[in-house]
Amino acid sequence: MKRFLEEPNALEKLLQPENTLEELLLTIPEFRYGLLWGEPRYGHPEGRVCFHVREVFNNIDLITELSAEDRRRLRLISLAHDTFKYAEDRTRPRDWSKHHSLLARNFMEKYTDDPVILDIIETHDDAYYIWLDARHDQTLPDTRRTSLGLLLQRMDYCLQMYYLFFKCDTQTGDKTQAPLKWFEKTAPGIRVVKIKE
Fold first, then answer.
1. With left for phi above 0 and alpha for psi between -120 and 50, is residue 191 left, alpha or beta?
2. Which burial class, exposed, middle or buried, applies to 5 when counting CB atoms under 10 A from its CB (0-12, 13-18, 19+)?
3. CA 183, CA 113: separation in Å to the nearest integer?
4. Which of 53, 52, 44, 36 is nearest to 2 (CA)?
C-alpha cells in the first residue's frame, strides 16, 4: 500500500471522487496531508485515513434505497470526518475545541453550508463517547459532557443520516460493534439497515 500512495494520483484512484467538491478537496495540501496521515492502531488497522475513508465509501455503496443527495452528503462527511486527526490536540485534559471533528467542521464550512454535513462531521464520534461513558457508568474526565438525550435532540432533524454515517464508519477496521448495536436499540425512530452480514 505504501508503494501505491507514491503513484501519481494515488488518492484520486483510491477514493474516486464523484463530484467537483470531492475533486477540489483532494487538491488542498492540508486535506491531502490528513488523508495520508496515520499508522495502524486499534480500531484502524488500515493506518492511513484515506484507507479508512475508502472502507466507509464501500459501506455507503452497500446501502440500498439511498438518494443521490444523501449519497453525496454521506461521502462528503466520510471524506472529511477523520482528515484532521493529525492536527488534533491530544494533551490531557483534552481541549475539545481542538478535537478533529470540530477542526474538520470548521474547515468544511468554507466549502458547504449544509447543516446536515457540518453537524454530522462535528458530532460523528459523540455516540461512541456516550456509549463509552455509559459502559463505565460514569462521566469520564475527558468527555464532552454530552448525553444521548442532548445528541438526539441536536440531531433530530437528520437522525437517520447520523445513524447511517455512524453505521458506515463503525463497520470498518477492527472496531467494536457494541456502540452501534447499543445505538440501534436506544435511538428512537431510526430505521435500522443492514449493510454487512
1. beta
2. middle
3. 27
4. 36
User: What would the grid cell of residue 63 be?
Assistant: 446501502
Residue from 87, 89, 162, 168 nearest 130 by CA: 162
The string of DSSP letters for 68-103 reads HHHHHHHHHHHHHHTTTGGG----SS--GGGSHHHH
Give the start-to-end residue ranges of the domains of the chain.
Answer: 2-186
pTM above 0.85, yes or no: yes
- The x, y and z cell numbers of residue 102, run together, are 470540530
Spatial distance between the Cα atoms of 114 and 108, rounded to a whole number of angstroms: 10
Tell me: cis bond preceding 93? Omega within 30 of 0 counts. yes
Cα distance between residue 85 and residue 177, in whole Å:
22
Rounded Cα distance between 151 and 123, Å, is 8
Interval 96-150: pLDDT, tens? 889 999 999 999 999 999 999 999 999 999 999 999 888 876 554 555 557 899 9
Cell 435500522, residue? 192
